[in-house]
Every structure is written in C-alpha cells, then in structure tokens.
Amino acid sequence: MTTRVETPAALAGPRGPAPLRARFGKVLDGEPLLRNGHVLTLSSLLTAALGAAFWVLATSWYDTAEVGRSYAALSAVMLLSGIGQLNLADVLVRFVPASGPHAGRLARCCYLAGAVCTTVVAALFLLLVPVVAPGLGHLRHPATAVCFIAGAAGYSIFVLQDGALTGLRRTGWVLGENALFAAVKAGLLALCGILALGAGILAAWTGALLIALVVTNVFLFRSAVPAHRRAQREAAPPQRLLGYAAADYVGAQFRMAAYNVVPLLVLNRLGPDGSAYFSLAWVIAYTLYMVAYNMGSSLIVEAARAPERLVEQARRVLRHNAVLLAAAVAVLLLAAPWLLALFGPQYSAHGTALLRLLALSALPNLVLSVAVDVARARRRLGWVVLLQAVLCVLVLGLSVLLIPRLGVTGVGVAWLAAECALGLPLLVTLRRWLPVEPRRT
After folding, report:
1. pLDDT of res. 72
2. What whole-number distance in Å separates Cα of residue 94 and Cα of residue 299?
3. Where are the transmembrane segments (predicted)?
4. Helix, strand, coil percentages for the chain (3-state, nearest 5)
5. Quick one: which of 378, 379, 380, 335 has its CA closest to 355?
C-alpha cells in the first residue's frame, strides 16, 4: 500500500490555489510517472555519489595508472554487457507492465539469454584484446579473466533486473539494490587495498555485484512477480516481442558504443593517466544523462498502461526534466574545479573543461532522449535506430579527430557538438512529433 504524503498545499485547505495544490499533489502524492522517475533518478544520484566515493578510495590505495586501467576495464565490462544482454532491459520495461502471469517467465528468459550471450561476447573480447585494446592486456591473466567474464555476465543480469523492477513499478528496490552494491564494493575495495591485491578494484566490483544480484532476485521472484501475477490474472502473453527487441537492440548498440568505446579511445590515445582524468569527469556528468534516461523509463511504463496519455506525459517529462537539469548544469559549471579537486589537483587541472562541456551536453540530450522514448512507445523503431546511430557516428568521429588536438577536452567538445546537432532540430520540430492536443471543456 502506498503511503500518501501530505504537502503544504494540501494542508492549507481551501485557501491554497487549486492549480498549485493539484500540481504538488501529483508530484509528491504518488503519481506513478513522476514518482517512479524521481526514485530512479535518486537511485542514479546515489549511485554516482557512492561511485565517486569508490573512486576516491581507489585513488588513495592505487596509483593513477591502475585507476585508469581499471576504469577502462569496467567500461569494457559495461560495453560487452550492453552487447550481450541484447537490450532486453528495455524490453522488460516495455512489456512487463501488461504481462500479468507471464512476467516471471519473461524475466527468466531474458536473464538466460543475456547471461549466455554476454559470457560468449566477453570471452571473445579477451581473445582479441591484443588487437582491439592492448592497454587491457592484464585481463588475460587466468584469475583476472574469470573475474572479468563473471562480472560482465553478472552485470547483464543486474541491468535486466532493473528493467523488470521498473516495469513492475518497484523502483524503490532499484534504489535499494544500487545502494547495497555501492556500499559493499566500497567495503570490499578497502579489504583489497589492505591485502594489496593487484586487481583489487575489479575484484571488489565483481564481489559486490554478486551480493546485490542474490538479494534483489530473491525479492523479485518471491514477492514482486507473484503480486503482479495476482493483479493481472487475465493478461495475454506479449505480442510481437522479438521484432521489437531486435530493432530496439540495434539502436541501443549505437548508444552503448558512444558511451563505452570513447574510454577505450582515450586509453589508447592518451594512456592510463588520460583515461583516469576522463573517467572521473564522465562518471559525474553521466549522472545528468541518467536523469533523462530514468524519467524516460517511467514514461514508457506508463505509456504501456495508458497509451492515450503519451503526448501529455511526454511533454510533462520534458518540462519537468528541463528545470532539474538546468539547475544541475549551472551547479556543475561553477563547482567543476572544486569537485574534481577532491580526487587530486591533477584531476581538476586536466578535467575541469571536460566536465563543463559534458554537463552542457546533457541539455540537448534531454530532447533526444524524450524523442527516442516516444518513438519506442509508438513502436516507430526506425527512428529509434536512426537517432542513436547518428549520435554514435558523430561522437566517435569527432572524438577521433579532436583527441589528438585537444586531449580529453576534445571528448567534451565532441559530445556537446553531437548532442546539439540532434537535440536542437528536434526541439524546433517538437510540435510535429509531440503535437499539442486541443483543450477539452
């Protein structure tokens, strides 16, 4: 049962303006669209804050080169997981809300497919490391290789369980599992630092991931899925799921490549130190990208339940997130040097301009993200693939051109230019893909 929160406007009784009371009531009193989006965003913020603390500890116990190699290795884990889990997390977000008694079977099938495919992809990557990522040659050590492959497969399930929980409107558990993961990996990192383990960063990350998976899936399959089954006993099996998954997967790979190939480019062009400077700025700025992604996930869940409200809710997400992101970007523009200085003066000296550019790029990214989510909800997957493919080509192409000239700052220029090239035209043509509905009396 959801506990209702009394807002100041609600307590004011008839003296408060009705529109103001209604607005605060919807945001704070349990409307699923914004409530679940806010919880997912809070989860991302908490993950980023605890993740930053994790890397602060890492920089205390390991030298800059080891931090850079470890971040590149974890970026590879996320890239391979993104390839191997077949973008089934978004499929779960889209189809679980109306799946009823089929939700558990759908989640288990996605888990199996994602884990098996990611294991194969990670093993192939290790065989090709000398060619595609020479800086990660240390991953080919037998014990480290096992840890790397297990981490990639486990992270696929970690992402998929977030999709299942979101589709079931159990976003509080997404917040809880991420907090558990962050806390445990910080504790294991401290233990690895005390024991002076050479691959301690990767080992701590993988061990914490395993614990978070066990705890979360016990809740998911013993509580959340049975409750959803009881609430929707008559739901039909998902229709045209494979076609949707295949097309959405292609689009997602372009976005994942833009996110996770860039760290490998930086490592290969600028070495471990450059990778370290880039990594911490990206960890902070990526939180802003996650605000748009998380609210978009909530939008897709609600669109699956009430398709007729898609335009209204998409415009609301766009307005709401624009205010939040504008405030966050302003803070980062001012605080960037001091924030990076927490990791050491060299991080502030090399990463401040990069962090500011990445923060600015989150604003046009909001428009792009909403456009992609609306296309997903309408099953216009050609647009989903096209928008993300263009973003990938622009980011990677500009990064290759600018890194030799501008160093890590060139990556920030690449992201800002690519996002503006897509976000600004979408904003200008907003009334075409999100037409304003006539007012009803």
Report:
1. 83
2. 10
3. 39-58, 70-89, 110-133, 139-160, 172-196, 202-221, 241-259, 279-301, 322-341, 353-374, 381-403, 409-430
4. 90, 0, 10
5. 335
Q: What is the CA radius of gyration of the chain?
A: 22
pLDDT computed for residue 198 by the predictor: 64
**CA distance linking residue 139 with residue 134, whole number of Å:** 10
| CA-CA-CA-CA dihedral for 406, 409, 414, 417, to nearest 10 | -110
How high is the mean pLDDT in each 10-residue block of the chain (441 residues)?
35 38 45 82 79 79 79 85 88 85 90 95 92 82 86 94 91 89 87 71 88 95 89 68 84 86 88 87 89 89 85 92 94 93 88 95 96 91 93 96 93 97 96 74 44
Q: Which two tokens stand for residue 74?
A: 């974890």
Which of 41, 94, 106 is closest to 307 using CA atoms? 94
pLDDT of the residue at 26: 47
Cβ atoms of residues 364 and 394 within 8 Å? no
Nearest C-alpha neighbor of 45 from the set 388, 343, 295: 295
Of 70, 4, 59, 66, the closest CA to residue 35 belongs to: 4
Boundaries of every domain in the chain? 31-433
Residue with tokens 């890397």: 55
Contacts 24+ apart (CB under 8 A), 25-34: 29/4, 29/5, 30/2, 30/4, 30/5, 32/169, 32/298, 32/301, 32/302, 33/298, 33/299, 33/302, 33/313, 33/316, 33/317, 34/295, 34/298, 34/316, 34/320
CA-to-CA distance for 220 and 217, rounded, in angstroms? 5
pLDDT at 24: 38
Grouping H, G, I as helix, E, B as strand and the rest as coil, residue 438 is coil
CA–CA distance from 67 to each of 70, 206, 277, 280 (Å)?
5, 16, 10, 10
CA distances from 355 to 51, 71, 83, 321 (A): 16, 17, 27, 20
